[in-house]
Amino acid sequence: MSALKESKIFNVKDLIAYFLVAGTGVIIQLISSSLIQDWFDISWSDSIVPSYIVGFIVGFILTKLFAFDARRTNQARREMVKFLMVAGVSLAITKMFTVGSFWLATDFLGMEIYTVKLPFAKKEVNLTEMGSYLIGMGFSFVSNYILHKTFTFKSTGFYNRLKVLIR
Hints:
Order of helices and strands: HHHHEEHH
Strand content: under 5%
Number of strands: 2
Distance between the termini: 48 Å
Strand order of the largest sheet: 1-2
Largest sheet: 2 strands, antiparallel
Number of helices: 6
């Protein structure tokens, strides 16, 4: 049996389920980012945080129900707190790698900004920004998977210690 199948962190079944859930989150983030830019007339980089928040809400529900077989744990509040902590780390990773890869491509490497007009639409899609966004989401995917698998949806005792500190 391969080392990937034997690994407790990189379980093939969990990885595939998480990939499908995260793929849904990526689509939601990209669509909400575009809508937020249009509706509120903000820049692409400024739309990352609000679109991440939209994806976060949907992501928690889908991850709990489908990714790590945690739907019957009766620990939703505990998992929400941990999910929120992981989401903060993930948001920082997404923003840093998205903006960083865009800077690397355009300013450091001097690549052109590529756009394409969608057929039957008025909107132009900036492929350079979208590619950078996908890179940021890719780095976020890896950290999210590992942190959710080993922290959020696993009883680590962290939540109980946090409750004691808050009281």
